Amino acid sequence: MEWGFSVLLPGMAKTSCKIVCFIMNEVSSIEEEMDMWTKEFSKYFKIIKVTSYEEYLEKFNNIS
Known about the structure:
By secondary structure, the protein is an alpha+beta fold. The chain has one domain. Helices cover about 55% and strands about 15% of the residues. It contains 3 helices and 2 strands, in the order H-E-H-E-H. Helix 2 links the parallel strand 1 and strand 2 (about 45-50).
């Protein structure tokens, strides 16, 4: 986890990436952990949370 915060996220922030999408089931056993990652990712990127790839495409097309 420390690597993710100290290396992964700052490295990603140096790219042209502007949006990160988390595709997760509505009920997930790792929801608390994903909330933490969402909070950290939102420091660098716009976050889209969805339950399917199709839902992502719909949301992405509405913001781009």
